[in-house]
């Protein structure tokens, strides 16, 4: 094995693109799966005769698994080597996908989704570590734009692909499609990824793991149970949140003691990392939480098929596709503090339309707003991540990407829970229909619930003979409920401007090539075959 220094050219050569291709393929598989499942939830409800709160655990269980395993990925990458661990993560995700397709009950599907999440949780932080090391500091912005490809393809192709597979085949195929992709990714990774030397000398923080991983899982479990219970006072909500929160606080206090903590919070001493992480966290809560509601509006209020809902969401990804490569190049040359606020203005402008939702809001207006939001998203996510990672030293990259990814997962989970609770609470305020009960729960059936159900299953009107005016009133109420929820998300988007104002407005030297902060004097050798 020979050593080759990282080039200082900003162009992406074939060797770097070959490595990036492996990472992109794994990330596409992981992110695609999240967006595909989001449009399949109504199908799971009817297939397994379960409530929305119950089938939502197919996504929540996946997220909990991510939160549990992400803190381990930094240490494991150092201990076993990124190539070996990345291939294990790919295999685990692929096996979990195959198992999901065999599920006979909603409980089984949730369990197999957890297995999937254990693999998926390692793919993104490991992928970020691999391409950051391969690119060097001079090209990290461009490489982050390449990594952004799956973040674009997920919102574009995920709902479309999921809707098409469900409409023409069955829900099983949204998981089976991962099998050939996973096998190709494994072979590609074996051939393309360079060997890397493991560093087994670093001790593993078992005590930190016993606090952080269960703490995060319990805390997110409590938050994710809120939509089902509708109140924080329920024991299933406050008890795991309290215990989980106490464990996380205990970990934070403890983590500054060991030399090699499970999650290196000392990295927050880096001002650029801290500001970028806070900006991204607030943004993820608003954007990812509300993002799950876009397909729900088209499916439940407008009565669209899963395929049509996926096509209607596609403009958002198309907008991001246009701006993300430009933002990646600018991130290497222009301080993100000068570009990200403008991108946030586009997101806020597009978001405002969804605070005015009705039952007949123009699709041209909605798709146009999603496109504008996509333009803003393309100029936000990758530049913020670039700002977070480019001032870290080479030895800090693995742990820095782990820190960034776990904040993303927590923010996404918190955002999804907040938006689900608000929407559920609003919908529950609809008038009950005298003498009508929900077949799944036995609870009184409201006008909004019946109107939403009738959009997907018109035969329910025969089961509950009601005047058309009641259905119209129920849909109006449902649209207003979505509108109210989007107002909260819009407020959180505006809140993102506060930390974004502190993002670097001057060019900062990258320390990625150094072991210690300072000038870029040394080169990191990149092993090649």
Structure description:
- It is a multi-pass membrane protein.
- Keywords: Cell membrane, Membrane, Transmembrane, Transmembrane helix, Transport.
- It comes from Micromonospora marina.
- This is Drug resistance transporter, EmrB/QacA subfamily.
- GO terms for molecular function: transmembrane transporter activity.
- The chain has 529 residues and is mainly α.
- It folds into 2 domains: 180 residues, MFS general substrate transporter like domains (Growth Hormone, Chain: A); 243 residues, MFS general substrate transporter like domains (Growth Hormone, Chain: A), CATH 1.20.1250.
- Helix content is 71%, strand content 3%.
- The chain has 20 helices and 4 strands.
- The strands form 2 sheets. The protein has a two-stranded antiparallel sheet with strand order 1-4.
- A hairpin with a 6-residue loop joins β2 and β3.
- The termini are close together.
- The N terminus and C terminus are likely disordered.
Protein traits:
single chain, 529 residues, mainly alpha, Growth Hormone, Chain: A, 2 domains, two-stranded antiparallel sheet, two-stranded antiparallel ribbon, 20 helices, 3% strand, disordered N terminus
């Amino acid at each position: 094995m020979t050593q080759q220094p990282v080039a200082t050219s900003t162009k992406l050569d074939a060797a770097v693109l070959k490595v990036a291709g492996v990472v992109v393929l794994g990330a596409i598989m992981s992110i695609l799966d999240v967006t595909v499942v989001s449009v399949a939830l109504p199908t799971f409800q009817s297939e397994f005769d379960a409530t929305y709160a119950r089938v939502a655990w197919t996504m929540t269980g996946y997220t909990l698994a991510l939160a549990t395993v992400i803190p381990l990925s930094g240490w494991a990458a150092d201990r076993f080597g990124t190539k070996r661990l990345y291939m294990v993560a790919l295999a685990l995700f692929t096996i979990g996908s195959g198992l999901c397709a065999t599920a006979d009950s909603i409980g089984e599907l949730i369990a197999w989704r957890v297995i999937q999440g254990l693999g998926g949780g390692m793919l993104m932080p490991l992928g970020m570590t691999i391409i950051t090391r391969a690119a060097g500091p001079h090209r990290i912005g461009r490489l982050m734009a390449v990594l952004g490809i799956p973040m674009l393809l997920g919102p574009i192709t995920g709902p479309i692909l999921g809707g098409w597979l469900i409409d023409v085949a069955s829900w099983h195929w949204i998981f089976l499609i991962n099998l050939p992709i996973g096998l190709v990714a494994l072979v590609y990774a074996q051939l393309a990824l360079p060997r890397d030397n493991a560093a087994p000398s670093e001790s593993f923080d078992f005590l930190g793991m016993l606090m952080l991983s269960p703490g995060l899982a319990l805390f997110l479990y409590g938050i994710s149970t809120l939509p089902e219970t509708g109140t924080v006072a329920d024991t299933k909500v406050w008890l795991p949140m309290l215990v989980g929160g106490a464990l996380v606080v205990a970990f934070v206090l403890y983590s500054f003691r060991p030399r090699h903590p499970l999650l290196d919070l000392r990295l927050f001493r880096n001002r650029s990392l801290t500001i970028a992480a806070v900006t991204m966290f607030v943004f993820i809560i608003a954007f990812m939480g509300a993002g799950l509601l876009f397909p729900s509006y088209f499916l439940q209020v407008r009565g669209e098929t899963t395929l049509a809902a996926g096509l209607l969401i596609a403009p958002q990804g198309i907008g991001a596709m246009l701006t993300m490569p430009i933002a990646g190049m600018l991130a290497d040359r222009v301080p993100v503090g000068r570009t990200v606020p403008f991108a946030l203005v586009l997101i806020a402008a597009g978001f405002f339309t969804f605070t005015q939702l009705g039952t007949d809001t123009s699709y041209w207006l909605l798709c146009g707003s999603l496109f504008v939001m996509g333009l803003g998203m393309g100029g936000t996510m990758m530049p913020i991540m670039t700002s977070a990672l480019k001032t870290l030293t080479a030895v800090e990259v693995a742990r820095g990407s782990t820190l960034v990814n776990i904040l993303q997962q927590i923010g996404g989970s918190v955002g999804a829970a907040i938006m689900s609770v608000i929407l559920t609470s609003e919908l529950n305020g609809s008038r009950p229909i005298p003498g009508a009960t929900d077949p799944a729960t036995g609870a009184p059936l409201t006008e909004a619930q019946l109107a939403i159900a009738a959009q997907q299953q018109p035969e329910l009107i025969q089961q509950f003979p009601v005047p058309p005016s009641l259905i119209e009133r129920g849909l109006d109420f449902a649209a207003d409920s979505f509108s109210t929820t989007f107002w909260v998300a819009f407020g959180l988007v505006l809140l993102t401007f506060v930390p974004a104002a502190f993002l670097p407005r001057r060019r900062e030297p990258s320390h990625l090539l150094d072991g210690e902060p300072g000038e870029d004097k040394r080169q990191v050798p990149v092993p090649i075959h």
